[in-house]
Design brief:
The structure is a single chain. This protein has an eight-stranded mixed barrel with strand order 1-2-3-4-7-8-6-5. It is built from two helices and eight strands. It is globular and about 45 Å long. It is mostly beta strands and 138 residues long.
Length: 138
């Protein structure tokens, strides 16, 4: 099991799924039941990217279609909790940024463990991506 909670946004035990197909359509499949995940896993020391929708289409009435619409309201210092394989992990928000959609540098870098929340930005646009960075609470 893999879930994420953001108490300051009222999000608890949101299902996180790793895609089985890395095509454009395959990456969207996890968003039907929560949010998606790429790269490393909690406790393994790498980049943990959790992605979700900030916008939806009129025909998409799922409860997750705008689940990350408010992640810009997370504040530096807010705690994000992850439950993964029976273990609990906490991360503290360290910074936020909006980047061009083509900019992948934030999650391509090697280094210490970091949780990155990722969504299209601004809402109802695909022009940019909004990233919330959080480091493990030791």
């Amino acid at each position: 099991s893999f879930s994420i909670s953001m108490p300051s946004l009222g999000i608890t035990s949101l299902n996180v799924t790793h895609p089985t197909d890395y095509s454009h359509d395959g990456l969207l499949v996890p968003l039907k039941s929560g949010v998606g995940h790429l790269f490393s896993y909690p406790g393994q020391g790498g980049k943990i990217l959790v992605y979700g929708h900030s916008s939806g289409y009129p025909w998409d009435v799922s409860q997750y279609t705008k689940i990350f619409r408010q992640i810009n309201k997370l504040q530096i210092g807010d705690v994000i909790n992850i439950s993964y394989n029976g273990q609990n992990y906490s991360y503290r928000v360290t910074r936020k940024q909006a980047v061009p959609a083509s900019d992948t540098s934030a999650y391509q870098q090697e280094g210490r463990e970091e949780l990155i929340l990722y969504t299209c930005w601004p809402p109802d646009s695909i022009k940019q991506r909004y990233l919330v960075h959080a480091e493990p609470v030791r």
